[in-house]
Amino acid sequence: MAMDAHTLEEMIRDAFPDAVVEIRDLAGDGDHYAASVVSAQFTGKSRVQQHQMVYKALKGKMGGELHALALQTSAPEDQ
Amino acid sequence: MSEVNEWIDGVVKDNDVVLFMKGTPEQPQCGFSGRVVQILDYMQVPYQGINVLESDMLRNGIKEYSDWPTIPQLYVKGEFVGGCDIITELFQSGELKQNLLDNGVVLETA
User: Fold this and answer.
1) What residues contact A45, with CB distance under 8 A and at least 6 apart?
2) Mean pLDDT of B57-83
3) Is the per-residue pLDDT at A1 higher than 80?
4) Does 3.10.20.90 match the CATH number of domain B3-99?
């Protein structure tokens, strides 16, 4: 099973409407992506919490349909 | 708390540093687990490696326990620190070493 980049981006955007999202397909197999997400919703949150928020947006697909997602998250002023 | 959660809770509280991983420190079975093993070995951190491939109940229980969907998972003094990405980032920024020292973990290199 795999997930296409567009679906992945859409799921993240649904949960983070303000976000700047960049998706890179690492292996071309729909299973290994890198994503960077910059959103004000991350302000004051730890890295673990930020990543958990993104995993929630993926509604359980992470670790199942999506094997690997290298995440880079930050709040706008962290850049 | 389910039985497996109780067991996990005990392991992370009884050991300073615990790495739930695929495979063993000597033979990681997954690149991501292997990378964290390399980081911990490089820093000469004494840690407990737990092979989640030995039991599906553990493999799923650990994801529920930490509300984190992937393996590996690193715990320091009972606190979930992160998966492969976060541990790599913390290592590169020096925050991982600081976290360990702040938690009284003795590094052989220290």
Assistant:
1) A53, A75
2) 95
3) no
4) no
